[in-house]
Structures are given as structure tokens and as C-alpha cells.
Amino acid sequence: MTTELYPRERLGRVREAAGRAGLGALLLTPGPDLRYVTGYDAMQLERLTCLVVPVSGEAFLVVPRLELPAAQESPAGRLGVELVPWDETDDPFALVARRLPRDLERVAVADRMWASMALRFRAALPGAEQVAAGTVMRELRMRKSAAEVAALLEAGAAIDRVHRRVPGFLRPGRTEREVARDIADAIIAEGHAVVDFVIVGSGPNGANPHAEPTDRVIHPGEPVVVDIGGTMPSGYCSDSTRNYCVGPAPDDYLAYYEVLREAQEASCQAVRPGVTPEEVDAAARDIIAAAGYGEHFFHRTGHGIGLESHEEPYIVAGNTEPLEPGMAFSVEPGIYPGAHGARIEDIVVCTETGFERMNLTVRELTIVQ
User: Fold this and answer.
1) What is the C-alpha separation between 203 and 223, in angstroms, rounded?
2) Based on C-alpha coordinates, what's the Rg of the chain?
3) What pLDDT is attached to residue 369?
4) Residue partners of 275: CB distance under 8 A and separation at least 6
């Protein structure tokens, strides 16, 4: 089994999957799919960068000439893929079309491809129906390799270190924005390449799952939801939510926090091969509803994670695709009554016999004195 994060054989698996889907070629512009296949974290530019994967024939990577050194120095340069530079006066869309079969019937374009580029490809390949590449790539990206799981473990450990520093940032009189700035600095200091998001929701702002940090001052006795994540140099993401209170917490908050902790644990324990995402969702939702807080849990229980912080599989009612070993996702039920809120989030990976947590910090409420 390969331990490489971006192995050479991945390109072959992509080609085989495209063939099974009845495609003639896959066109992947900068974004997570391109990085998954080649390791190349290319810049999104108005100039075309595109990995072309014909089902019959060899793959090639079209790059603007001024980006050629970056492509050569990336993992893509070690894959043996032909790099095809183009100059400022060239038409790279026509260049791609000339190298593909004239009788191409169906071509998949990257889900994140800019519409302007998809339309240029449509004009350059007039006989080819365009479909979303995600229909092919999801099957490959959902099942993480051992190397990818190791990358997620590294990301989880890094964000855990940040959470251990959060109590030092929280004190009455500070604003959410001030705390968020300290957390963002810590995310980089603890090994991430990019800060993806920082949620610091104090008091009623904690009842908004996607609250942006504000100039609201944190007061004694207020619960604070801290949901943070970033991208590691490997390209793999972290995401973890923990809950804090500056001084003694309100009794009504403590009552539903214990319900939430039980629900999150039950949802994690439900994870194993063959179980469906909607069953994992129900494991948390049923406990919260039975305790009388059902109306205050109004989002899905989780989302997949990898090269994107949100990707498939989604842990939600209606998703009946059975879990398989290697699938990685968040388990993050929440309760948001209004005066305050709480969410507990871990990243877990489905294993052969159950699950493994990527986050190991305490899930109990942390009281900051």
C-alpha cells in the first residue's frame, strides 16, 4: 500500500473511473480535484491551467508559460505527466481541443471551473456534452487512503493545539473580534498554512451556527462557541468546535449541554461500515429531540472533509449511501435555544470496525476562570 499523499497510480484510477462513467475526457482546472490528482495547488487565474485526462491516451497538463516553473516544482512535476506550456498569444482552449479526439461525445469539467472557461471549452469542443466532473471524482475522494488519514490526523492534532490555547484568549471585557484575531494567529503558529474560518460566538451569538466575530464584548457567565479550522501545507483541512464559559455557566445551558454531549457521543459510536449517514444523523437527533430540544437543532449532523473543509459524504437525513472505511466527516450536533448555543464537533474516519477520532481535546464544557 502506498504511503504517498499524491501517488502516481491515482491518475490511472481517475482515467478508469471516467471510462466507467462513459466519458471521453476529464478537464480539471485549479481546485481540489486538480490537487487530488496531481498534488499541484495551482493558482486560480484568468489564464487557463487545466489537467486533461483522455480516457484513450495520455494525460497532459496545460499551463501558462509563466506558471511552468511552479508546475514543475509541484508534485505534478514528478508524476511523469506531460506539461504543455502556452504563450500569451495562444488559444489554450483550441490547444486542448486539437489534442483530443474529434468524435468526443461527453467531457467532464471540474465542478469549480469558472463559467467563462466552461463556455470556452463548449465552443472549442462543440460536439461534446459537458457534465460535472464531481460525478466521477466524488467516488475517489470520499474514500481516504492511509496517507490521507494520516494528513487528517496531523490537521486534527494541529487544531487541537489551538483549542488548548483558547482559554488564554478568553476573558471578560475582550471582544469576539479580539479573541478571533488571537485564534487566527495561533492556527498559523500551530502548523496550518491557511486560516479557513474562526467562529467566536458569545452569548446570543452562539445561537447562530455561522456567526462572524463581532465587536460584542464577552461578559462573565457567558458561554462561547469556538468553531475553527484551517488548511495544512499538505492541503488537508481541520475543523473542530469546542465550548467555553467565562466563569460559572447558566443552569439552563448546563442542562442542554449534557444532552448535547450525550448526543454527539452516540452519533460517533454509530459510525461503522454499512451504517448510513442518515442513521448517524438520527443517533444524535433522536436524543436531542427526546430531551425537548429538537427544534433547536436545525442543521445536518456533519459534512465530509479532506482537501475541502466541506465535501462528501454529508451526514444528513436522506443520505442512504452506506459508510465505507476511509470516509472522513464531521460529527457536530448543536443546540441553539437563542440566549446562547452550543455545538460539539469532531472529525472522524470510518474504519474497518468502527471509527477513529481526529480530534482528542476534551468535549466537556471548559470553564475559564
Assistant:
1) 6
2) 23
3) 86
4) 322, 323
